[in-house]
Design a protein that fits this description.
Blueprint: H1 2-18, H2 33-39, E1 42-55, E2 58-70, E3 76-81, E4 97-102, E5 127-128, H3 146-152, H4 172-194
Antiparallel strand pairs: 1-2, 1-4, 2-3, 4-5
Length: about 200
């Protein structure tokens, strides 16, 4: 009888250990428009053009910017976010236009990426928008209220300067060109030495 009880307790304990952990879900309080705009280092509208998965904690999105509400007036911006929405990551879809709110403060959800100081998340207030002006949210997006438009203020057009698209490693042809140059130099040296 004791053996059966101990076996049942052991099986119960093992099943608790074997159960998968509970997933953390991201929950955000709905901030006021002035809170969203005050806390952001950069606010802009632009189209997501590229996605680069850097590591398990960071994805970098490249945007072609069409209007600036706050921050540097670049035509291209790189923004990082966590790749998973349960960890408050925001996944931008290439080809879609967005109103983006990004910060340069230290992030607890996404790892730092050299050359990409701006980051955003699900709680930042980002939303897909239709092309053209005035700002209009897509049917799936959050509404753009008069209070948000007032908090945003007037937009300025971007200048011709911008960040280059994020590229964590040099292109493969750099390695090929360096190898070809070293081979040519070595062959020239070997040929001259034989003479």
């Amino acid at each position: 009888m004791i053996r059966r009880t101990l076996t049942a307790l052991l099986l119960a304990a093992m099943s608790l250990i074997a159960l998968p952990g509970t997933a953390c879900a991201c929950s955000c309080a709905v901030p006021e428009p002035t809170e969203i705009t005050t806390g952001a280092a950069a606010i802009f509208t632009g189209t997501a053009t590229a996605v680069e998965h850097v590591n398990s904690d960071a994805t970098v999105f490249t945007f072609t910017v069409d209007a600036i509400y706050k921050g540097k007036p670049n035509t291209t911006l790189n923004i990082r976010s966590h790749p998973q929405s349960p960890t408050c990551g925001y996944n931008f879809t290439p080809g879609t236009r967005y109103l983006v709110f990004a910060t340069d403060r230290e992030s607890s959800t996404t790892s730092a990426v050299p050359g990409v100081p701006l980051h955003t998340d699900l709680c930042s207030g980002n939303r897909p928008i239709e092309s053209g002006t005035p700002l209009r949210a897509t049917p799936a997006g959050d509404p753009i209220t008069p209070a948000l438009l007032t908090a945003l203020g007037p937009a300025t057009p971007p200048t011709l300067t911008g960040e280059p698209p994020y590229n964590p490693t040099p292109p493969w042809w750099w390695y090929g060109a360096a190898l070809a140059a070293l081979t040519a130099l070595g062959l020239t040296f070997w040929h001259l030495k034989r003479r």
